[in-house]
Structure formats: structure tokens, C-alpha cells
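User: I'm designing a mutation panel for Heme chaperone HemW and want to avoid disrupting the core. Could you give me a predicted structure to guide residue selection? Please restate the sequence first so the numbering is unambiguous.

Assistant: Good idea. Sequence first, for numbering, then the predicted C-alpha cells:
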Amino acid sequence: MIKSIYMHIPFCNRICTYCDFTKVLIDNQPVDEYIDALIKEMDTVETKTFKTIFVGGGTPTALSMEQLETLLQAITSRFECTDEFTFEANPDELTTEKIDLLLSSGVNRLSIGVQSFNNDILKILGRTHSVHHVENLIEHLQNIGFENYSLDLMYNLPGETLKDIETSLSYVKAFKPKHISWYSLIVEPHTVFYNLARDGKLNIADSVGEAKIYEAVMSGLEGLGFRQYEISNFAIDDYESEHNKTYWLNDEYYGLGAGSHGYVNSKRVSNVRPVTHYIDSMNDKGHAVRESHDVTINEKYEEEMFLGLRLNQGVSKSRFKEKFNVPIETIYGEEIEQLVNRKLLKDDGEYITLTEDGRMVGNDVFSEFLTS
């Protein structure tokens, strides 16, 4: 049974310099028509009860109050969420009225796009908020007793120093969030940062410097009581992101909206990206135009490894055998043995996990399991 569903809102008030997600500036866009199309796609989903619902973007909080109300009413009238209903938000867009609407509609977790606590870096990133906006938002959430929020941060940003990491950790200590996502900057094609990097104008650390920053992030959060449960995610006990664990555990999920991805009935599917094309496909065909790929058994093995190894608990041997009816050693015995000998993996008999050294070169480890 599919337990998770993702819905994509591709509109932003400003395009960030690092972002390659499906997004457009909200001005003069057919937002109402898009929401209507998204609702039509909701009606094609057979499952009605989900463990997790995640509304992301883009920037869902870029929607007006009326648009948000339409969207949330459509979601709650069609689906039941038993555990975790998450909404992504920008600090400067999450007004008290929008917070009230989200919470009254059953949203019980916020994913707040902070990225940095350095105002100069925020400007370089193209963010519309300042540290002051974050402070005001967290103060309001604390005043109303809402605790289940994640601060989403990035490291190895242009001009960033270890002092900036220390500053961010001091804010984390003061705000006491339940969850932290702290990802390294990845310079993606078709972004402003990609063009700057190509021209040698992007001031970020090399791999050695990045590793030092990552170590500072991990040790700093550990010192504040956060348990690392995935390469870039940290949580207080009982506040891990159940929705994102759907991806890392290689379970199936629905993806709705322009450019969204899903994994349904052993097929990886991706909806058409342009907003107008998505709207037209829903209006003309009653379903989104999408690419579909039948996942082969070898690809399922690979995905189970490189996704599961992102988790600190690693890949469960018993779960692997239950899912595929074959012991993990039969498929990857040689690769695991070699990586254990290189001290990049650990095998305790129940789980295969990355060592500390392995976490530093995670992509190299993952590549050892890509055979197709």
C-alpha cells in the first residue's frame, strides 16, 4: 500500500540563484488554473488515506490566502493524513493568517526554508527573507505552542566560513527546532550559480574545506542533542521526517503537479514540467502527461542500496530479503566485502551502514552498487 503523497506548487516570488526545481515567478501566472488542474489530478489518486502528505515547491506559501484555502480544502476533503502533514514555507511569506489556516486545515509540520543566518549570503542566494523574518516567525510559533518544524539550511555557500556555521548553530540552540535539514550546496545546470562556477566566479570551498564544514555541522548538532539519522538530516527523538524516509527506504509514493516525480506500481513517473503544459494535459486528457519508466529488478536492488545507505541505520538485511526474496549477499556480497575491508562500510549482521569515513565519500560508495 502506498503511504505517502507529494504535491508540487511551482510558484515563487523570486527565483533563487541555486535552485533547479520546477518553478516560475508567480507574477502573471495562471495560479488559479494550476490549482484547479492539481485538484483534478488529486481525483485520479485511488488511495485516500496516507501516513504522510507533503506540499512543496517552489514555494507553497507564495499562494494567496484564497488560493491556499482552495488548495487545503481540496486536500482535506479528498485525503486523510494519519501521521505527518508537512507544508514548505518561506519565513517572510508565512503570515499569522496563513499559519492559522494551515494549522486549522490539519498541517502539523512546517519545513521552513532558512538556508543561512547570514544576511549577505541570503542576498547572494536570491532569498527574499532576512534573519529578522526568521526570528519573528519562530517567536510566533513558540508563542502559539507549535513545535514541529524543521529549519532547512545549506552549507558550503559562497563566502561562507566556519564562523557562519557557528552562528547558525547558535540560532538552532536558541530556537530549539525539532528537526534540521542541512544540505551541501550542489551546483546544478541551468542555474545562476552554475554559470558563475563555469566562469570561475563562484567562491565556495574545495572538497577538503567542504568536509571540514560538514564535520562542524555534524559535531555541532550532536552537541545540541540532535541525532543524525540521514546524511543531511538531524532530529530530536521522534521527530524524523517520516515523509522523506519514504524516499530513502525506497517505498512507493504518489507525486502530483507540474514536474513532480512518483513511484507507483514499480514505475518511476515524472509529470510534464511547464506549468501551462501541465494545466493543458489535465484539462484535455484528464491526467498529467508524464514520462514513465518500468524499474527493473536490478535497478530496485541498486536503489535499495544507494538510498538506504543515506540513512544512519543503513540497509536492513532482513528487509532486503523480504522485499526481493533473495539475501543481500547473493547480489552484493563481493561489493560489501570490499567496502568493509576499505573501512567505508560496516556489516553488523543485521544492517549494512556507512562508516564515518564512508559518509565523507558517500557518492563513491553508492557508485559501487550501480551495475546496470
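For picking mutation sites, this is relevant: The chain has a mean pLDDT of 95. Residues 104 and 170 are 32 Å apart (CA to CA).
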